[in-house]
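> @MW can you paste both from yesterday?
MW: sure, first one:
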Amino acid sequence: DTTSTPTSSNNEKTNNAPTQMELRCVIAIIRHGDRTPKQKMKVNMTEPHLLAYFHEHCDNPKKDLKIKAKKPMREFLELVKLMIREKEEARKLILETSKKRVHPSSLDLFNKLKIMRDVLLRWKIGGLNRKLQIKPKSWEEVEDEEGNVSYECTEAQVILKWGGNLTKLGERQAINLGQRLRHEMYPNSPGGGILRLHSTFRHDLKIKTSDEGRVMKTAAAFAKGMLELEGEIPPILVSLVHKDKDSQHMLDPTGNKEVKHELEEYKVRINENLQKDLDFSNTTTEEHEQIVGPTSLVSMHKALKEVGNPRKTLFKIREVIGELLEKLDEMLGLITSGDENKIEGGEGLKGESELDEALSGIKLYKGETLLELTERWRLLYCKLYDEEKDKFDLSRVPDVHDNVRFDMLHNPHLGLSRTLGKLYKLAKLMADCVVPQEYGTTVEEKKSIGCKMCSTLLDKIKYDLIIARTDNQVDMRYMINMEYSDDHHINTHWRRIRTRLYFTSESHLHTLLNVLRFGDAHGCIISAKGRERISLSPELCYLTQVVMRLFEDNNKDVNDPKRFRIEILFSPGATATPLHMAENDRDLEETRNETEPLYSIGMDDLTCNQVEDFFTRVIEQGKAGDDDDLKTAKSSSDDKSKKKKKK
């Protein structure tokens, strides 16, 4: 049932590997699938309606209000509709009486309210599709008749987040990946392979994710393909995918203040180094290393060479976004030149059926309106470059890349293929220089942030390996009743395989691979070929995978370290370039649903003891780093308190 030859899916066999070993455990860390662009809108408002809503629902007027429940969300939607009607009436009144132009700030607020309305109406109220928050910005003291003083909010900031949802393409890719790994990672014996083991309670499967909706849905879609399940994604998600506080900390440690501080420092350096007005051909290798790190990071140096002059490339990106906006504004003007009120429900709203697309005249993916798409690009255009300071915000480059890739894949019928294609090439090269550096530029920095972000996950993987190696039956949640084993014709009822699947975000894959390939003072567990394979991957795309398989050689002595060996595999995920195809033909393109094959990157004859020892050292290093940061923070806070006392 479980004997297998340890070899990667691209037929790169490890040297001196035994011909037959028994597979004991499969551990995979996988990035989520293709998603819609993550979007955020911030609006500062002093509208009486909004302030009244805030005071009605908040417990403390000085604290943020997070709106999640259906009833207050519906009330907020009605409030937005009311403010839109009032703004429309006020605008008409100004035009009729004074014949003056409406102030641009008033139009800006009006457009933002319309976008809020469209976003809130796009999906059913509730679920994982949007997040709404109201932050009080200023207050005034109010004294009642009895002389009691309280505070009232006079200005609030509305923050609406939406997007970042798993697309149908991402769902299909995850299902296909689950099916493929079922055949490639597990022995496919005549008796039925992993499906046979699973149906007879000999496959211990656990799936853990962070609390992001796209990550959980990716995990459910993968499980559907892997286990040949039928039906919709939500029931699979509820029954198989585990999301708890431990998983949240393990798979999304960005809430850690020390990690946040370190990541912010890297972003500042990226902004300094990657907007210099210098040509690659006229600079030295030392200068290249200062900009994108050591020469061993081949893909980054290759991208920098193609970029040529970073500052000139950034201006080109901004110029092409400007061209795109001109075309979108022209399209928007043609659609809204008629009476918008003739469109039932307003610009871009959905019809009665949930399957209806946006009523804006152009069908966009997931009901997005043309106004929302235009404002999405306008926001990027404004945030990318600060004209007053003459500075670019490099943190927006990955957003530009995500947005242009999304529109090329999902909105090919806009007729903007030439402009989007030009923008994609420029944004991709800059993103290849920027994104890996968000997790450190030098090797030491990459190791430092990697140890801190991944120590909890590595601790869990180490535990998984120990349990699989020692075969602790207590860890098995469900086991077959042996009294009925004869009815199922099970010859090897003692055999079991453990599968642990961890679904997370891009940041975790970057930091995990940095830890694995750069190692510690005692070395690493990745081969020279494996390090080269990783460094040649310019991007960790959607559904990037790091897989570990634990094998047991039953012919070896129980105390022989070589009895258990580990194979480490890597795939950069769905790397296919987003082809700009006609809507009728794009789903026929096979590359859209496929991911890169898995490549063997681990050292030859890597034993389980070697991996466990390596993880132990990395975990300790991560804890030591946290302790140092805490000591530094404590000493700085002590200094501040001493200064206050002196004053």
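MW: second:
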Amino acid sequence: MGDNVDNDDIKRLIPIVNKLQDAFATMGSTPIDLPQIAVVGGQSSGKSSVLENIVGKSFLPRGSGIVTRRPLVLQLYNSTEEYGEFLHHPNKKWYDFEEICQEIERDTDRVCGSNKNLKNQPINLRVYSPDVLNLTLIDLPGATKVAVGDQPKDIGKQIRNMIMSYASKPNCLILAVTAANTDLANSDAIEIAKEVDPQGKRTLGVLTKLDLMDRGTDARGIFTGEDSNLPALALGYVGVVNRSQADINERKGIASAREGENQYFSMHPAYSDIQDKLGTAYLVKKCSQMLLKHIQSVLPQLSSDLNKVIAQKEKEMADMGEIANPKRSRADITQAILKFSDRFCRSIDGKLDPDGPSLTRELTGGARIEGIFHDVFAPAIGDIDILEQLGADEVQTLIRNVSGLGGSLFIPNSAFVALVTQNIQRLEDPSLQCVQLAYSEVLNIVSMISHNMPQVDKYPALKSTIVEAANQILRENYEPCNTLTSTMVSMERNRVNMAHPDFIGHRDNFGEFTQQVEEEAAAGPPPPPAKTLQRTIVKEGHANKKGGNAIVLWQKRYLIMKKDGTLNYYRHMGDPEPAGVIYVPGCVVERADAMVGKRCSFQIYHPAGNIGKTFFFQLQNEQEANEWVQCLKEECAKEPEVEDDEEAADNNLLPGISPPAADEDFDQIPTTRQRGLTDRIHAAIHENLGMREKVECEILFRLLISYFEIVKKNVSDMIPKAISYLLIDKLKVKLTSYLINELDSEAKIKQLSAVAPEVAEKRVKLKKTLVLLDDSMQILTDLSHTSF
């Protein structure tokens, strides 16, 4: 399409886009990116004068500071009659442009207040005049960087955000207004245009105040493209001469100003031969052509985008269903129940639901419950150590006690069974906690689904009934699930299966196993671990610890606070490697007696972490607790000391390498060697016992570890199965029938189908929006069948 545009095309096309703008303004939002021209410039760039020259009337408020505090959507229509109309006063014609100016001020104060606040809610003004071409411009506040007078301190940022909300849209053309008598390289308008339109494809530069440039200078090179100091714009630059402040004060008419502008360009030696490409008249024509081309190029995409918005709104309307229709109440409630039950089952089974929450942001549904089983329950079971409080002396005493008078030739079975059954009972508490966590999580899933389903969320009574029904079904099965959980642990405790194929005491494995133990016992203890230099230790001592998981047990640990900033906790005093490490600098330490329900307790956590990574410790008495708290507070507040190479090697920390973060827990399952026979126990056996006793203790320790690992695997596997069957599957099966049985009377149906007031209001608004969108779609459809 050439520069010559048929004015009939402009008359037909631009008003159609104006209708879409009015429709979206009525909706209170713009669901698609409409073609428009945003006028951008600094506060003293002459932007307002350009707009008044285009309209041919003085109608914009003037004054010091911020005058334009809301976007002004200015729609120009070529007409034989001259008047203005505001969208917020649709049935009133304004013939006096002084009154239009006053109404702009009044409506700005009504929305923004009488102070200097800004609002992005636009004022829509139509101007009908025989002196204008069909055109739509958006006047935005003048950019500024420094607050003046009583302006808000962040006024520059507020204005910039408003400008960017328009200028950054791909379908927005930019009219970048800059005063020619200023440093053009630092123009606010050009800077913004370069940021959002780096290639200059949708920016038209406008230079004002050409008549105020220094004597002997001109802007000809900018208009002809010979000057490379300003960014190249595909749409070029247009120069205009506006009324001066003296002209405005003397109320010089726009028509006289236009004549003066034409005379200036025709008489100026630098502009006389290009005056047909300068001036307000040419700027208006250029803008009309520019907008028309842009509308035609984006028309197919507008139709596609609007269709998507309509489909989305229609789905929202369909999800809400009919309101205030008693004949459909039972059907609507039944359908909502069935959809909820289906959504719940799909969520538990991990089937993708396009209408559900995002599947990439966080775990949902069944994945959250599986997280409890796999990431919380299983590690809690695995962390229980059968040898945690067991030494060689205790084992030998037990062997002698169960051997009775006369002793025995071999290790009595009763010694092994007594120790195993005693420790299996320790698995019951975390198993019952797992049931409680799963119960709470299933209820949370039910609540989340009911909140995210419009078909259910619009009925408050139905929503409450669904949550209560789920709670009731879960409560009915909670005690049976607890009972089954305890029974499973009791079953493991009641029969010790020494014929299990994975048990190292099985008859097929026992001979080779005992021979290996005898050889190791004869070889003597392993070499002692490398000593820890005492000067690297700040404080040490015994304490009970829990933390790092949702299922937590108090465990006896040996603490060593080192000068490198790490709090190391060991399973046993003398162990070569810590069970976990907490990096103390930057952490918070405080007493926690009330929180954990135990005296002499404190907690340590990192402020950026979460409660799952808070560690609790309990000491024997108040003095010890206070001493540890005081010590750790001092260590939290200072930088760790860098150890020399020897100390670093002893502590498994290299100089310059940061220890683990405070929110990391390394309390992992040790290797079989670490769990089966710690160096402490091994040394104690070889130091205090004879050869036979050494072999007996070592065999028993390894048998205990082997069998207890089998039991823990069984419990870790069977408890989640019991929970899945008795809590989750029962709820999936019973929930639908339970809820359908609630619809036993018309009164109950009426109660459940009562719609929340905010939902009814939203539906009315949505219905109006759909009407406006359908009208807009019809406009674009008619337009697509029109040739230009």
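> thanks! Residues 691-740 form the longest helix (50 residues).
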